[in-house]
Amino acid sequence: MNDTPQSLLEERAHESTAELLEEVNEDGFSLSDDRISQIRDFLEEDNAESLKAIFDDMSEAELADLFQKLDKQERHNFLEKFADEIEPDFYAHLDYELRSDILSDMPPAKVARIISELDSDDALDLIIDLDPQFQKEVLKKLSAKDRIAIEEGLNYPEESAGRLMQREYVAIPQFWTVGKTIDYLRAAQDELPDEFYDLIVIDPYYHVVGEIPLNKLVRAKRSEKINDIRLEDIHIIPATMDQEEVAHLFRREDLGSAPVVDEDGRLVGVITIDDIIDVIDEEAQEDILKLAGVEESDLYRAVLSTSYSRSRWLFVNLITCFMAAGVVSLFGATIEKVVALAALMPIVAGMGGNAGTQTLTVAVRAIAMRELTATNASRAIFKEGFVGLLNGCFFAILVGVIATFWFHSPVLGGVIAMAMVINLIFAGVFGAVIPIMLDKYDLDPAISSSIFLTTVTDTVGFFVFLGLAAIFLV
Question: Looking at the structure, do residues 38 and 121 belong to the same domain, yes or no?
Answer without folding.
Answer: yes
